[in-house]
Specification:
Number of helices: 8
Low-confidence stretches: 10-43
Structural class: mainly alpha
Strand order of the largest sheet: 1-2
Strand content: 5-15%
Radius of gyration: 19 Å
Shape: globular
Largest sheet: 2 strands, antiparallel
Distance between the termini: 47 Å
């Protein structure tokens, strides 16, 4: 009963193709003369114009640590912003069609159960990785965008942030928030996924969640570059989009 793991990971990987293609065209050529966007601007943007991007900061801006309240606010925004709900609906639809966790049943009741658990996965994961563990270990849950250098170098940097994060003092340390947060979410999820409680299920789910977070980091790293490229293209065509 592991089809939903591979289905979800393939869907997340597909989202990476367009950002990387645009980013390569942006960064592999002449250097971009535009100044990097301030951290406050980046955190207000949405990746691909839709996905919430509340925990991205610019490493070229002087570091300012977050308070505990700000970390919990990031968790709240990431868990209640409107795209979270259609995402949960989409995953619920996939799981429903494939009859994942068959004990949930079919029909409206089964679909509602799958939607509730898909949403719970997101909220519980955010709670541990963006709030509880960062506060307890004095970690900063934000992704600090490199914003310069080669595409391959920035790709490597973004993926390795899965294992490395900033502390509240501005240094770097092992990313307990990412690894421990996902592990804690999986542990809680075992209580409401009665059909997927084997060690294989746990391992697959961990790889899926960490892999999805890695894709998210890459998208956060290159999204401002993509935006600038699109804006220049729009301006070059007189703002007509033709």
């Amino acid at each position: 009963m592991q089809n939903y793991h591979t289905t979800k990971l393939r869907a997340a990987t597909a989202l990476l193709i367009v950002p990387l293609g645009l980013a390569w065209g942006q960064t592999a050529g002449a250097p971009d003369s535009a100044a990097p966007a301030p951290a406050t601007d980046i955190t207000k943007q949405r990746v691909l114009g839709v996905l919430p991007n509340y925990r991205t900061a610019d490493s070229q801006v002087p570091f300012v640590p977050l308070t505990s309240a700000q970390k919990f606010h990031i968790f709240y925004k990431d868990s209640t912003d409107w795209p979270v709900f259609p995402t949960a609906l989409a995953y619920a639809g996939i799981y429903h069609l494939e009859n994942q966790n068959p004990s949930f049943g079919q029909g409206a009741k089964g679909f509602a159960h799958r939607f509730a658990t898909a949403y719970a996965d997101q909220v519980i994961g955010n709670f541990f990785s963006e709030a509880v563990i960062p506060v307890a270990f004095h970690h900063d849950p934000r992704y600090f965008r490199k914003g310069e250098g080669s595409v391959s170098g920035r790709m490597w940097y973004s993926v390795t942030r899965l294992l490395v994060c900033k502390t509240d003092r501005g240094g770097w340390t092992f990313n307990v928030s990412e690894i421990g947060g996902n592990a804690a979410q999986i542990g809680v999820a075992m209580s409401y996924y009665p059909d997927t409680r084997t060690w294989e299920d746990v391992g697959n789910r961990m790889m899926l969640q960490v892999g999805t977070d890695g894709i998210s980091n890459v998208m956060k790293e290159f999204w401002p570059d993509i935006q600038r490229k699109l804006k220049r293209h729009h301006a070059a065509h007189g703002g007509t989009g033709s």
